Amino acid sequence: MNDFQPYLIQNTHPQTYNLPRLKHLPVREQPAFRVAKDSDACSLAELLAVIIGGSTQIETAERLLAQFGTIQKIAQAHVNEIAKVQGVSNLTALRLKAALALGRKLLQPEDERPVIHSPGDAAQILMPMLAHREQEFMVVMPLDTRNRMLDVIEIYHGSLNSSMVRVGELFKPALQRNAAAILIAHNHPSTDPTPSPEDISVTRAIVQAGKLLDVSVLDHLVIGLSRWVSLKEKGLGFS
Predict the structure, then answer these.
(1) Domain MPN: where (predicted)?
(2) All domains of the chain, ordered by start, with CATH?
(3) Can you give the pTM of this predicted structure?
(4) Where are the alpha helices (H) located in the chain, listed in sequence order?
(5) What is the SS3 assignment for 12?
């Protein structure tokens, strides 16, 4: 008889699975029910959870708030930054950006759109969006025939140079909105708004493309921490 006896391995630490918190909540306490009943009474986490969806929506919403701190910082973040949070897919990040953009548009009635009479008017709108960014952002402001602002759209994010900026992308928002003109702006994370040679070269290419597309390029602003520079006023890239 063989005396060999196999060892029986006992698992002294059985694996446990934690159910998502959504599964533990009564229906009346779940974010979707609360938003449907009274969205104004909901917390930021609950509102975000409904947009995020899925079984781990509550945990993901809380991770988002822990990562960014405020809803304003989530709105300012790039889609790729939002998608880095655990549980947030690229599609979910896009939904969040769209939902927050809709909220901003709700606060801007069509008949009260800002009119851009000067570079200073545009800078007043764009400084809060761009001045404190730690990376470089380029935005486009399409304008109607009365120089009323139609929107502000982020086009690029990261290190900008003339070789990576596709001029056609800058005009796409204007063509989609039948805009008569555009104003370009980007920030310098160094806080010094002095235009670089690359800024001037990009501006020159944008102005030439605008002439071909019959869309006026009103200006290109460079935003620093507390100052801004108008390339048109300086005659840089517009001659």
Answers:
(1) 115-237
(2) 21-107 (1.10.150), 119-230 (3.40.140.10)
(3) 0.57
(4) 21-24, 31-38, 44-52, 57-68, 71-76, 79-83, 90-106, 119-130, 167-176, 197-213, 231-234
(5) coil
